[in-house]
Amino acid sequence: MSRLPDALPDDALSSALHPTIEAYADQGGLLGAFTYFFTYLETRDEALAETLASIPTDLFVTSALHDDAIDEIDAWDDRKRRLNEHVTTGDLVFANVAAAVADAPADVDLGHALETVREIGAGQLAEESFDAAAATVDDAIARVDERGGLWGDLAVELVAATGGYTDAQLASIRTIATDGLFVLTVVDDLADLPEDVNNGVATLPVVLFDGDPGAYRSTTALVDDLLASDVPDRLEALVDRRRAAIDAAATDLNASLDYSDEALLEAATLALQWYCETVCSVPVAETVSQTRREAIREGVTGGEASTRQFVAERAADAPVAIDPDAIAGPLGDLPDEPLVRTAIRLEHLESVVDDRMHTTVEDALAALRTASAPAS
Fold first, then answer.
1. Do residues 71 and 199 make contact, with C-beta atoms less than 8 angstroms apart?
2. Which of 37, 82, 332, 338 is the most exposed place for a label (fewest CB within 10 A)?
3. Is residue 330 part of a domain?
4. What is the pLDDT of residues 229-277, one digit of tens each?
5. Structural domain boundaries, residue 368
6. Which residues, 6+ apart, have CB-to-CB distance to 186 below 8 Å?
């Protein structure tokens, strides 16, 4: 679904901007799906879940377009048009956020969520004042928490506005969201290292580096030395600690939730349906072939042995710890069709994520090393 007004002429934007908007919506919609799942799980209200899920989705698109206007302006030939296009389009998408807030029921207090939106904006302003030369590692980590974690806070404040979760449950949801966004921000900063160095942006990988970035005559030389240092290992250790916190929070949350497996499946089914049908620009058929869909169906409905094998294969690739035996058993008691649709859409989502962003330090390092390798 387009994030832009229907009345906007097709030729109002350059052809290059449309796929950019789609890519940002694909990414922002992931946080929207997270919001949808927990909102629907508690309220059973599809309209409310969709309204609240659209807020982080559209705000992310707005923020990303405005970031591009800041970071890429020097590379644009037609600077005035491109700047106007990015800023104005971002503003138009932000109008969706305002509309969603207006559509929220009177008993859903979005005050804390809107305050988080303001904090996200303030964090963008603070970007230029961060001094890598004077910053400690703790300063840089706190900066990542501000940049990435605040997006997780936004999702949690939206979920909290429904009033159905306990403080302890919200704390677990917050850890899952904020530490998850922290990990993605660290990985993204590593993947974007050459661009950030060229733009004079000080991110955590640079702060961790013992060398003097100003002493290097080329970005390539700096990146090569950083990759050969202990920075990748230190980033991996930091990410591992956050993933462990996510695992612990997910375990605590699961133990505290009093929902049937059927209710959890329904919430997941609807959240993924919302993402795939109203947000994502990539059709499911493009990422999950008919042959693969048939294999997924056999995996989740073909009996205990095939289900356990299917779950074990998926768990091996998961970014957090998953006990296949704990999941495979309950799956056999769930209705086949929503289970199959959800499994297919999950694989689709994973494919879109892998295409749109790096999700592990290993992937980001591989991309950097490939880019810096001399042409043969």
1. yes
2. 332
3. yes
4. 999 999 999 999 999 999 999 999 999 999 998 999 999 999 999 999 9
5. 10-372
6. 144, 148, 204, 235, 238, 239, 361
**What is the C-alpha to C-alpha distance for residues 58 and 285, in angstroms, rounded to an integer?**
25
pTM for this entry = 0.91
Q: Is the dihedral of CA 185, 190, 194, 200 positive or negative?
A: positive
Does residue 254 fall inside a structural domain?
A: yes
CATH code of the domain containing 96: 1.10.600.10
Asked if 133 contacts 213 with a C-beta cutoff of 8 angstroms, the reply is no
Backbone angles phi, psi at 161, to 5 degrees: -65, -20
- In-domain check, residue 1: no
Query: What distance in Å separates the CA atoms of residue 265 and residue 182, rounded to the nearest whole number?
Result: 27
Number of domains in the chain: 1
Do 20 and 274 touch, CB atoms closer than 8 A?
Answer: no
| CA–CA dist 53, 295 (Å, integer) | 31
* CA pair distance 190, 188, nearest whole angstrom: 5
Amino acid at 364: A
Contacts of residue 288, defined as CB under 8 A and 6 or more positions apart, other chains included, come to 296, 344, 347, 348, 351
Burial of 118 (0-12, 13-18, 19+ CB in 10 A): exposed
Q: How far apart are CA 49 and CA 37, in angstroms?
A: 8
Distance CA 157, CA 101 (A): 13
Distance (Å, rounded) from C-alpha 264 to C-alpha 258? 10
Closest CA to 15 of 82, 66, 61, 75: 82
CA 58 to CA 67: how far, in whole Å? Answer: 14
Q: Give pLDDT tens digits for 145-180.
A: 988 899 999 999 999 999 999 999 999 999 999 999
